[in-house]
Amino acid sequence: MSDPGRVSLSGPIKMRILYAVKGRVRMRWGDQLEFSDEARPGDFIYVPPCVPHQAINASPDQSLLCATSKKMPKAARHDPQYGLFA
């Protein structure tokens, strides 16, 4: 669950699939996060391997709930710099 306006940054992953359950999620991606799109409940977003991306709660007043699946390189799974856990 994400509070309104909250931003989530991602470390090095091989890929991510995000499913919007509640609220609106804005996904930015690209080397400079120059591309963006929004997903509403029932929508999927696929992020290809090793593409920098950022998920943002696009609603100013509604919480966001998403289901996500990601595959990370083994070296990143326990890297305290990214706070990732296997």
In short:
The radius of gyration is 13 Å and the shape is globular. The protein has one helix at 74-77; strands at residues 7-9, 15-22, 25-29, 35-39, 44-47, 53-57, 65-71. The chain has one helix and seven strands.
What layout of secondary structure does this protein have?
Blueprint: E1 7-9, E2 15-22, E3 25-29, E4 35-39, E5 44-47, E6 53-57, E7 65-71, H1 74-77
Antiparallel strand pairs: 1-6, 2-5, 2-7, 3-4, 3-6
Provide structural commentary.
This protein has one helix at 74-77; strands at residues 7-9, 15-22, 25-29, 35-39, 44-47, 53-57, 65-71. The chain has 86 residues and is mainly β. It has one domain (7-72): Sandwich (Jelly Rolls), CATH 2.60.120. A four-stranded antiparallel β-sheet has the order 1-6-3-4, with no helix packed on it. Strands 5-2-7 form a three-stranded antiparallel β-sheet, with no helix packed on it. The radius of gyration is 13 Å and the shape is globular. It starts with 6 loop residues before the first strand and ends in a 9-residue tail after the last helix.
The CATH topology turns out to be Jelly Rolls
Query: What is the oligomer described by this structure?
Result: single chain
How many angstroms separate the termini?
Answer: 20 Å
Order of helices and strands: EEEEEEEH
> What Rg do the Cα atoms give?
13 Å
Shape: globular
Q: What is the CATH first-level class name?
A: Mainly Beta
Name of the CATH homologous superfamily: Jelly Rolls
Strands of the widest sheet, in order across it, are 1-6-3-4
Structural class: mainly beta
Beta-strand content: 35-45%
Number of strands: 7
Q: What percent of residues adopt helix (DSSP H or I)?
A: under 10%
Count of all domains: 1
User: Can you give the mean pLDDT?
Assistant: 75
The CATH architecture is Sandwich
Main sheet: strands, sense, barrel? 4 strands, antiparallel
Uncertain stretches of 5 or more adjacent residues: 81-86
Number of helices: 1
